[in-house]
Amino acid sequence: MATAAAGGRRRRVLFFPLPYQGHINPMFQLAGLLHARGFSITVFHVRFNAPDASAHPAYDFVSVPDDGMPADSPDTVQATMDHIVSVNRACEAPFRERLAALLERQRARAEDVACLVADSHLLTLLGVARGLGVPTLALRLGSAACFRCLTAFPMLCDKGYLPVQESSQLDAPVVELPPYRIGDLPASAAAHGQLREVLSRVVTAVTTSSGLILDTFDALEADELAALRRDLAVPVFDVGPLHKLSPAASSSLLRQDRGCLDWLDGQPPASVLYVSFGSLASVSASDLVETAWGIANSGRPFLWVLRPGLVRGAPPSSISLPDGFDAATRGRGVVVSWAPQEEVLAHPAVGGFWTHCGWNSTLEGVCAGVPMLCRPFFADQMGNARYVDHVWRTGVTIDGELQRGKVEAAISTLMGAGEPGAGMRRRALELKNSAAASIGEAGSSSVNVDMLVSLIQSM
Ligand code: UDP
Which ligand 1 atom is nearest residue 243's CA? Predict the structure, then answer.
């Protein structure tokens, strides 16, 4: 096993996550992995969604001012792009100053900085590090398939797939990138130009770094990873599933309600539907009502995460469920504001996962061997849902307008006895086993972690 001490010097790896839950978690998992191999860790972060340093006493933390960043969490493609642009802009000068000071201090110690691992959305900051002589690695949080879409974005525009002109085109296949349909692409009709720019910066962040790190594994995306290795001039390290591989302490930004695990203990095996839409997506008041009645009418036990701010237009702290919902589901369900999701999904009582298909949730669902009900919102979520229901065939997607009847039918397909649910559950278990194999001895991700550690030692 490769470790940092192999060369006789203590090496420090710097991290800079994008400040969202779905980006912070895997970066801390990667940091945990490298720390376990003997590297010292410094995490640079903005003030927005700052990580809890006390949960990681072995790491150094450097706060970088983010003056001018929007204060709210983004819940649309447009708002996310505005955030990304402003993190890069606001942090450029203060990051340069803080990194230069850190390098100066390191020179006085028997330790040196090996590299910066930054989110692939932080092109400006990766450039700052290289300008100060620090090699960089880009951590891309999304599937290999999604990153292929980003590299293909200019082609997709040239061929007229994007920007989407009419909703009637959404079901048309993207011939060059099966199984994507136009509607599965990360697109924004309203802000096409800005999206193209933001995505092209991600690709540049990767191609100008010394390697691309992906939280996926070979058995899940063998063809997509092979295509990336063929097309990219930088090495690709698929080291996922990071949450299974890494001993990282919790990096949850919200307090997780662990009481729901006790409730799950009392439920029959594979009986509970777990419902969560991640940390950013928001729903309309009418979708909340359809979701609630679809869950209630399914007759199944459920654990539902209603995150503060989930419902557009509702006060963040108090989400009201429709009249009669409590009575209709009494004794059959639990609602929490934030759950220990990985543990929930791994619980034997959970038999289905209604997800927005953020990449972390998708991967966590895959690793738990749980079939998924997909209801994607934006960005890469539609493409992830397409892989769940069309490639891995471990779930169903609810398309179009959300209606309680569709929800009830989808839950019954997913969790009911007989086909097609039984086939989805069987394939989900097979994927779970291949995820476990990938991080076992000589598994593809374990081998890639060793290669990544060797690369960092040589930097
Ligand atoms: N998560 C959690 N508790 C919850 C809901 C989500 O800990 O109640 C975690 C989940 O395990 C995942 C992350 O939040 O690691 C969400 O990331 P994802 O990429 O799925 O979605 P995003 O929030 O970025 O849309």
Answer: 15
